[in-house]
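Complex 333.
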Amino acid sequence: MKVLLTGGLGFIGSHTCVELLNDGYDVVVIDNLSNSKMTMIDKIKEITKKDFSFYNIDYRDRNALEEVFEKEKVEAVINFAGFKAVGESVKEPLMYYDNNVCGAICLLETMKKYNVKKFVFSSSATVYGNPDVVPITEEAKIGRATNPYGTTKLVIEYILDDLYKSDNTWDIVVLRYFNPIGAHESGLIGEEPNGIPNNLMPYVTRVAKGVLEKLSVFGNDYNTHDGTGVRDYIHVVDLAKGHIKAIEKLDKENKGFFVYNLGTGKGYSVLDIVNAFKEENNVDVPYVIAPRRPGDIDSCYSDPTKAKNELGFVARRTLKDMVRDSWNYQLKN
Ligand code: NAD
Ligand code: UFG
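Predicted structure with nicotinamide-adenine-dinucleotide bound:
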């Protein structure tokens, strides 16, 4: 099967590309390099010893996209392309709606034109907003995103729902990721945020390396076991394997519109992460307790049962694996 990945040189896309190639899929990647580098192509090829097609195009460029569909005869699409920085989305909402929502519409219209109707979408736990209960099942209420980035994910989910209702020959899987961290065990590919990281793990690795002085732990008065925020961290390689399960479902099984959480079902606090990182890697991570970050919530972790029952997906990698592989990537890059 030939699968097109938009944004396939990014953090999650590159790991998924590796897993698809390793599993014998043909892969076509498009990426405009707005948050990735060409060197990623050689790294993916080095890990997999396999080849794939790459197009340096913007997925909002309809003509360029049509040329790819014309040439490549893809059978399914995974849409990773988009912007993802919460703070930036608050400052530049139009840029976020344009790239994420207009891009997705352009892609779906092109798919429709070429009668390619198998689609996997990178959504986010952010669509649940501040959940009423944890663990969060797929039946939990959505629609309370607290920033424009989160709203773009919601809007695209609504578009996909409407699209399927209008034409049930589409096969659509929406994957709601929890917090992806870690890196490929080779240390060749991993997360490369521009500038000072917003997310916890890339911040921790830079503090451990001495690039940044200390971590600010945003709040220690949350309603959690140690007062710091609890999240469901999932190893990016496990997350990538979740996409294979989604593609297998679209390839082999019944048609439909499906939504799955991709998480481990375990919640770890900020201090759990810092302590596990220090212990596993034998390196110090100086930190201070700082005020809460606006918009943050106490606890967010998944109920992963539906993905287990319907996709056969279980995240196997442990917190130790995640902190070790994150550090290994930082040391090698
Ligand atoms: P990333 O920024 O590393 O990867 C996105 C890739 O898309 C980059 O390579 C970028 O160059 C490319 N891209 C962006 N706009 C494009 C455009 N207009 N045309 C072509 N390529 C474009 O991000 P990631 O962490 O790999 O995330 C992938 C997807 O998963 C995103 O949609 C993101 O919103 C979603 N997601 C990520 C997280 C997370 O914590 N990383 C959590 C939930 C959901
Ligand atoms: N944190 C710190 N210090 C930091 C960075 C983060 O204490 O320097 C804390 C946060 O307060 C939070 C936890 O670490 O309690 C995780 O924060 P991240 O920024 O790494 O992740 P979030 O859960 O806030 O958000 C991430 C993505 C969102 C996505 C969401 C759910 O950034 O885009 O996971 O998938 F929507």
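The longest helix spans residues 93-113.
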